[in-house]
């Protein structure tokens, strides 16, 4: 059985070497790229299962690399974990909006935690099996088998995290989910995130939903719900 391939895109050599050591020790096959252009070349060549992608890169920024990876059919579904010294929520919003699946803030304080996040991301590569492949409310349709969301029959381009988040909410309209429940249901129960990470995902999802954004309602002091049909 082939090993899971991880591409580390980082220009700070000591961090690259530490990440490579930790990932290889955990059983992953590790590749390196030191700038944005090389990252795109490597990603197309080796088709990694996961890319750990620094934001601040030479030649092309990590955000631009993420954008181009998502635009290429060959790498569109590759898992991407953004890595940055920038801890502001706005930076996370940009990363998630470009299609990142997770976000790590440097310096990495615990490689054990990072490896848990890597494992959690890889664990949710395949959609879970469900007897009901699609569900629709208020013109919004989520089709799990085809991994497609449409609003008024127009397709919506979502990241995996956004897709699972919307699916979780729409399958039980009217039910208020707290943030921990949404992290477990949409991001994976082993995911370790900042307290407000789910809010970043919701904000990005609402923006993509346009006029249908208000179907995702904020429940003060609790979390979020999908509007209940009358």
TrEMBL record:
UniProt cross-references to SUPFAM superfamilies, sorted A to Z: C-terminal effector domain of the bipartite response regulators, CheY-like
Keywords noted in UniProt: DNA-binding, Phosphoprotein, Transcription, Transcription regulation, Two-component regulatory system
Location of the DNA-binding region in this protein: 132-228
InterPro entries reported in the protein's UniProt record: CheY-like_superfamily, OmpR/PhoB-type_DNA-bd, Sig_transdc_resp-reg_C-effctor, Sig_transdc_resp-reg_receiver, WalR-like, WH-like_DNA-bd_sf
Residues the record lists as 4-aspartylphosphate modifications: 54
A GO CC term assigned to this protein in UniProt: cytosol
Keyword field contains Phosphoprotein: yes
Span of domain Response regulatory: 5-121
CDD domains assigned: trans_reg_C
Protein name, entry field: Phosphate regulon transcriptional regulatory protein PhoB
MF term (GO), any: transcription cis-regulatory region binding
Domain OmpR/PhoB-type: 132-228
GO biological process: regulation of DNA-templated transcription
Any Pfam family the entry gives: Trans_reg_C
């Amino acid at each position: 059985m082939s090993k899971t391939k991880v591409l580390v895109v980082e220009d700070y050599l000591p961090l690259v070497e530490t990440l490579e050591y930790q990932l290889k020790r955990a059983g992953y096959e590790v590749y390196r790229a030191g700038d944005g252009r090389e990252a795109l070349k490597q990603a197309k060549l080796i088709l990694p299962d996961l890319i750990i992608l620094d934001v601040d890169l030479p030649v092309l920024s990590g955000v631009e690399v993420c954008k181009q990876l998502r635009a290429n059919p060959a790498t569109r579904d590759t898992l991407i974990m953004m890595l940055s010294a920038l801890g502001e929520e706005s930076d996370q919003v940009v990363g998630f909006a470009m299609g990142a699946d997770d976000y790590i803030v440097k310096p990495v304080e615990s490689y054990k935690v990072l490896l848990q996040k890597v494992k959690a991301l890889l664990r949710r590569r395949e959609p879970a099996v469900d007897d009901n492949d699609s569900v629709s409310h208020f013109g919004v349709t989520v089709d799990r088998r085809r991994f497609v969301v449409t609003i008024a029959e127009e397709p919506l381009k979502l990241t995996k995290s956004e897709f699972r988040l919307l699916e979780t909410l729409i399958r039980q309209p009217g039910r208020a989910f707290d943030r921990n429940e949404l992290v477990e249901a949409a991001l994976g129960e082993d995911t370790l995130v900042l307290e407000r990470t789910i809010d970043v995902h919701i904000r990005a999802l609402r923006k993509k939903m346009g006029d249908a954004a208000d179907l995702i309602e904020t429940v003060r002091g609790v979390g979020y719900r999908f509007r209940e049909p009358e």
